[in-house]
Design a protein that fits this description.
Blueprint: H1 5-25, H2 33-55, H3 59-73, H4 76-88, H5 96-102, H6 104-114, H7 116-119, E1 123-126, E2 138-140, H8 142-169, H9 171-196, H10 207-225, H11 233-242, E3 246-250, E4 256-259, H12 261-267, H13 287-293, E5 299-306, E6 309-319, E7 327-333, H14 335-363, E8 368-373, E9 378-381, H15 383-390, H16 403-411, H17 427-437, E10 441-449, E11 452-464, E12 470-479, H18 481-497, H19 499-529, H20 536-568, E13 575-579, H21 580-597, E14 600-604, E15 612-616, H22 617-634, E16 638-646, E17 650-657, H23 691-701, E18 705-710, E19 715-722
Parallel strand pairs: 14-16
Antiparallel strand pairs: 1-2, 3-4, 3-7, 5-6, 6-7, 8-9, 8-12, 10-11, 11-12, 13-15, 16-17, 17-19, 18-19
Helix pairs in contact: 1-2, 1-10, 2-3, 2-4, 2-10, 3-6, 4-8, 6-8, 8-9, 9-10, 19-20, 21-22, 22-23
Length: 726
């Protein structure tokens, strides 16, 4: 290769175009920046390939580099048109489909150039290399003039027309940027015309890629000095002209440099052309506002009369760095905002009057009144609750505090007597009921205050905002101690005669917990499964929790149904021949997995392999199932044994575990309905307390007895059934 002054010019040209491409890409977030960067990268590629072509020393190598350069030669006009589309805001014309259609002709020309030796449509021949310049002259064919020159001139003409139209339409704001882009686009035009007319300073020297040096310099100047890509012309036009705020730019002589339609309307100006005009000499209807613009002072509230209407404006003035005392003025109509503020003040005054009246009424009522937020902190109390329940100094002390604070404070006054002050403990649960359901409720709350028993009729309701969202709880309480005392005495007498009704009440009280707890668990975990981003492992955990809750709920319902059938007398004995060994094998398979999961050993101690008795198989299976469930539930480690022994007239079954044990004073009570081994309020083990009562009912229906032997650790449940002939 031979590097001449001409080849070095093209290398310099490539470097300048590359700088322009890098600068444009650095602002790729601006509209048109990416397209300009791609255009300049194409120019860089074109110039660099021409640099290699001018340095080549053989005709064949020059032709090869020329063919490669056609990748940029044929696409540059299309890329320039796409950039113009983006720059002037006609992005809808630069879609992917439209660009592909524009590239059809360049693609054909590119194929013709690469296959020129077969048809000579792009260049007919190549003049031998000049020894002084190392340049070769190409004589172009009809395909070059029709496919490339005509199509390129068509695209360049259209691009130039669009730019000129844009310049004249937006010359007020983006005149300099538009003229620079237009001038940069004319440079290749001039160079290509010289090349086509064969008017060159040196034979074979193509000025077209060389002209990109000037175009690149112009683009670099526009990017660095006139913020070519920092502003979006159409975006500015749409933004400023559609702002609700008035925008005015004045120079140091109060001449209008820019003004939008909103400002004209605010000033009452009808004159169309205002640029360069002295604001004081322009005819306008709102004199007071224009006078405010002529000063250097900003105004937070500036009142004027606008066509028999009182208007309030906020006038902000921002000094411009370009020239001393020039300023950008923003006029914002705040009339509506000011009126709203006045209305708010009037509403606050009315609210204060209503609150004063309500406070007077509330403090003179004998009933206790209060309101709480969602965290159960008081936000309002009347004198009655302060004096009777909270023992507060005034109605301000409880604000922001919870009921628990005052209960603890009063209990601390007499700590040796737990019954000195215990009223209000149940109110926490009733508050939760309102918060959970969002519905009003009536509650009976009772306890001791200063050692005296009191019974209160409590009514609570949710507090809702204007959108229907709960923001707190409001409540009232009335002393009904005397009334309740009378009712209690009547109830005691009535309960003695209606034992079955009491059982149903107890049933409902206990089942409300046993049904609601698994339901809350099921609903809670279903909500968690619906959360976005839940992993498969987490879903499996939630599925197991939902399944566990469902099984617990189903067991509770089954127990309820069985007890209901027993109470109503609908259940009867259905004796069948039963293989006890087979039953024990089935029980072992059913509970072995659950026992293994807890690390327990399930032992079948039955000795007789062929023991057949006549009994109700379903009842026997239900008894053993409930006893095994309890054994697995209450045993943390060790083993569980099942088996039976026979006597001439009866058979004894047993389930033995190494669990928590049952105190002697509770061994009889656990067979009653709703009684559990762990009967505390904070019990660890789940259950409705119906299992053992069902076992007892089944055993007694089959003519047997059931009992338990236990101590501090481990329990053995026995039940005996009469033996009937097989």
């Amino acid at each position: 290769m031979i590097f001449t002054i001409y080849s070095l010019l093209f290398l310099l040209n490539a470097l300048i175009a590359l700088i322009g491409a890098i600068l444009a890409w650095g602002r790729h977030s601006s509209k048109g920046a990416k397209e300009l960067a791609v255009l300049m990268f194409a120019a860089t590629f074109w110039s660099f390939i021409v640099f290699l072509e001018t340095a080549a020393i053989t005709i064949d190598s020059k032709i090869l580099w020329t063919k490669i350069s056609y990748l940029a030669v044929v696409t540059t006009p299309v890329l320039y048109l796409v950039f113009v589309y983006r720059f002037i805001g006609r992005t809808y014309l630069a879609t992917f489909t439209n660009v592909l259609q524009l590239l059809i002709v360049p693609l054909i020309v590119l194929i013709l150039a690469w296959t020129n030796e077969y048809h000579h449509l792009i260049w007919t021949d190549v003049t031998s290399i000049n020894e002084k310049t190392n340049l070769a002259t190409y004589h172009h064919g009809v395909g070059f003039f029709i496919g490339y020159m005509s199509y390129s001139y068509l695209l360049m003409t259209w691009s130039t027309f669009l730019l000129a139209q844009f310049i004249f339409k937006h010359q007020k704001t983006f005149r300099s940027q538009g003229w620079i882009v237009l001038l940069a686009s004319i440079c290749p035009w001039v160079a290509s015309i010289f090349y086509m007319l064969n008017v060159n300073i040196v034979e074979g020297f193509d000025l077209t890629p060389g002209s990109i040096i000037l175009s690149g310099l112009l683009f670099i100047f526009a990017i660095l000095k006139v913020r070519l890509l920092d502003l979006v012309p159409i975006a500015r036009e749409a933004l400023v002209e559609n702002l609700l705020e008035g925008i005015v730019v004045l120079d140091d002589r109060n001449r209008v440099q820019d003004i939008n339609e909103a400002a004209k309307k605010q000033l009452g100006i009808e004159q169309a052309h205002l640029l360069g005009e002295d604001l004081q000499r322009i005819k306008h209807r709102v004199t007071g506002l224009s006078d405010a613009l002529l000063t250097q002072e900003s105004y937070e509230f500036f009142e004027v009369s606008d066509l028999e209407m009182e208007k309030v404006y906020k006038i902000s003035k921002i000094p411009l760095k370009t020239k001393t005392e020039s300023r950008l003025i923003v006029i914002r109509d705040i009339t509506e905002t000011v009126e709203k503020q006045k209305e708010i003040q009037r509403s606050e005054e009315r609210l204060r009057s209503l609150y004063t009246m309500f406070r007077l009424m509330a403090d003179n009522m004998p009933d206790m009144l209060w309101a709480k937020d969602l965290d159960k902190r008081f936000i309002f109390v009347n004198k009655a609750i302060c004096e009777e329940l909270l023992k507060a100094s005034d109605t301000e002390e409880p604000i922001g505090k919870t009921l628990e604070y005052f209960l603890s404070r009063e209990q601390a006054k007499n700590p040796q007597d737990p019954d000195w002050y215990n009223f209000g403990r149940s109110s926490k649960n009733t508050d939760d009921s309102i918060l959970e359901t969002g519905r009003s409720g009536v509650f009976d709350e009772y306890g001791t205050i200063d050692g005296e028993f009191t019974h209160q009729d409590v009514r609570k309701a949710p507090i809702l905002d204007e959108n229907g969202q709960m923001i707190g709880i409001v409540g009232s309480s009335r002393d009904v101690t005397l009334q309740k005392k009378t009712e209690t005495e009547l109830l005691i007498a009535k309960e003695r005669a209606e034992q079955s009704d009491r059982l149903k009440s107890s049933f409902l009280a206990n089942m409300s917990h046993e049904i609601r707890t698994p339901l809350n668990s099921i609903l809670g975990f279903i909500s968690l499964m619906q959360e976005p981003g839940v992993t498969a492992d987490e879903q499996q955990i939630y599925y197991k929790a939902v399944k566990s809750g469902g099984e617990r709920l189903l067991n509770t319902i089954n127990d309820i149904i069985e007890l209901s059938r027993i109470d109503s007398g609908e259940m009867s004995i259905k004796n069948t021949e039963t293989d006890v060994a087979e039953l024990f094998t089935m029980l072992n398979s059913v509970f072995s997995r659950e026992a293994r999961e807890k690390g327990l050993q399930l032992i079948n101690t039955m000795q007789e392999q062929k023991l057949r008795i006549v009994c109700d198989w379903n009842m026997l299976y239900g008894i053993m199932t409930n006893l095994l469930k309890n054994a697995v539930k209450y045993t943390k480690q060790g083993s569980i044994e099942i088996g039976c022994t026979t006597e001439p007239d009866r058979i004894r079954f047993f389930v033995k575990d190494t669990g928590i044990g049952i105190p002697e004073n509770r061994q009889k009570d656990i067979f009653d309905r709703f009684v559990q081994v762990d009967g505390s309020k904070t019990r660890v083990y789940e259950g409705s307390g119906l299992g053992l009562s069902l076992c007892k009912a089944y055993v007694e229906m089959m003519g047997g007895t059931i009992w338990v032997e236990s101590g501090n650790e481990g329990s053995t449940f026995y039940f005996e059934l009469p033996v009937h002939p097989v």
